[in-house]
Design goal:
The complex is a heterodimer of chains A (219) and B (262). Chain A has 219 residues and is α+β, with helices and mostly antiparallel strands. Chain A has 5 helices and 11 strands; from the N terminus they run βββββββααββββααα. The longest helix of chain A is centred in the middle third of the chain and has 20 residues. The longest helix of chain B has 22 residues. Chain B has 6 helices and 10 strands; from the N terminus they run H-E-E-E-E-H-H-E-E-E-E-H-H-E-E-H. Chain B has one domain: Aminohydrolase, N-terminal nucleophile (Ntn) domain (Glutamine Phosphoribosylpyrophosphate, subunit 1, domain 1). In chain B, helix 4 runs antiparallel to helix 5 and helix 5 packs across helix 6. A 5-stranded antiparallel β-sheet of chain B has the order 8-1-2-9-10. Chain B has 262 residues and is α+β, with helices and mostly antiparallel strands. Chain B is globular, with a radius of gyration of 19 Å. The chains are: A alpha+beta (219), B alpha+beta (262). At the A-B interface, helix 2 of A face helix 2 and helix 3 of B. Chain A: InterPro entries: Ntn_hydrolases_N (IPR029055), Proteasome_bsu_CS (IPR016050), Proteasome_sua/b (IPR001353), Proteasome_suB-type (IPR023333). Chain A: Keywords: Cytoplasm, Nucleus, Proteasome. Chain A: Belongs to the peptidase T1B family. Chain A: Component of the proteasome complex.
Amino acid sequence: MSLSLQSGGTSSRALPHPSTSSGLTAPAEATTRPITTGTSVLGIKYNGGVMLAADTLCSYGSLAKYKNARRLLPINSRTLVGASGEYSDLQSISDLLRRNALEDRCTADSLYEEETESEECAKEVWSYLRAVMYNRRNKMNPLWNDVVVAGFKQDADGTTSDEPFLGIVDKIGTAYEDDILATGFGSYLASPSFVKSTRRIWRRVRHVPCGGLLEDSVL
Amino acid sequence: MFRNMYDTDVTVWSPEGRLLQVEYAMESVKQGSACIALRSSTHSVIGALKRSVSELSAHQQKILEIDDHLGIGIAGLTADARTLAKWMRNECLNHKYVYGTALPSGRLVTDLADRHQRTTQSYVRRPYGVGLLVASFDKNGPHVYQTCPSGNVYECYATAIGARSQSGRTYLEKHCESFEECSKDDLIMHALKALVGCVSGDGELTRENGSVAIVGKDQKFTLIEGEELQPYLDRLELEGGNNGGNAEEEEDDDGEAEEMET
C-alpha cells in the first residue's frame, strides 16, 4: 500500500507501466475531462463552527443520473470534506483520507496511552490534499475536483481550538483559506451575496440561521 | 571468556539470549560525555558536557537542533549522531511540507527506534553507536525520550546518559518531584546541577564546556552556550558550588548547598 506522494497518494496505479503491459492492454491515459460530476459545495463559518452544504445530484453530462449521492464526507472526528467535480475522484480522495485516518488511529503517537490528539486536524488534511493535488497536476493526471475542507483549527500546542477552519484545494493544487467558500457555480451565484451579508459578522451568525442561509442558496 | 565466541556478528545470539554486538554498541554510549534531559509541564531541557580533544581544539557540539519544536543531545559516536540528526531533520521538514504542522515527536521517535532495530537484524550493517536524548514540545506537550543502539526508546520525566551519568541520574531522582511546576530558569538550573556531578575529577562546568537547550510552550528550541550560559553558571556558583566529583570548597548558602555526588 502506498500513501506516498510519488504514486499520487493512492495505491492503485492510474497509469499502467507500458513495459509491463501484455500488449493487449490500452495505452496509459490521464484524466482529460470529468465524466460523472457533482456541482457546487458551499461552506461558511459561523458562531460555533463551520457548515457545508451541497446537493445530492451527480450528473452524467446533461443527464441527472445519481440523485442521492453523498458529496459531503466526514474524515475523522475533527474534519469534514466536500467536493465538486468528478465523483469517482472524490471517492478516491475519501478512501485515501480515511485510510490515513485509520493509520493515524493505529499508530501510537506516543509510547504511552495517555496521549491523545493523534488525529489529523482540518488544516493538516487541507495541507496534505494540497500536496497530493499538486503532485498529480505535475504528472499531468489531476484529480478533477475542487475540495472544501472544514473543521477546527489547532492551537500552537496542537490542541483543537474553538476557532473554525475552512479551506479549499482545487484540481491544480491551489490552496486557499477563507471564512466563506464555494466551488463551481456557487462561487458566482451564492458567494457574493453571502460575502456581502455575513463576511465580517460571521462570528455572530448562529447555527439555525446559518443552515437556513445555506439551504436557500443551494435551492 | 566464552563471550568471545558469539560476539563477532550482530546476527549471532549468545547462549544467554543476548546480542553481544548490540551490547558493545551500548558501551560506546557510556564512553561519551554526559548528557542530561528533563521536563516540566511546559518545557523540556537538555544539558550536556562538551569534551575537547586537546587544549587547542574546540569543544565538540553535543546538542543539535532538529526543528523548531525538537532537538537532541548526543552521547557516543558523533558521526553516527549526525547521520541520525540529518534523517530526523529531513523527516520533520517533509512533514511540515505535506501537513503544514510540526511532526509529533512520538511518531518521529518511534520511526527512529525502528531505524535502530533494522541495524540489529542485518548481516551487513552495525548498530548506531550513539544514544540520543530527544527533547520536544508538540501538540501532546513536552516530552523527553532516550534512545539506545538496541532500538529501545524510553520516555522519561528526566534522564542522563554518558560517562559518570549515574551521579546525574541520582540528582534527578532526588528532585524529580519538583520538576513539574518548575519555571524555565529553575529547570535549566536543575539540568546544570545534575551535570556538575558528571564532570571528571576537579574539573568545572564552564561556559566553554557547558551546553544547555530549552524548548517549550511559546519557546522555540533554543541553544544556550558560551556567554549566554554565564548568568546560569553564576547562579550555580551562588546556589551550591561548581565542582565536579569532589565536594570540597562548596559555597555554603545558608545550608542550601547541594550535595555533590562523587
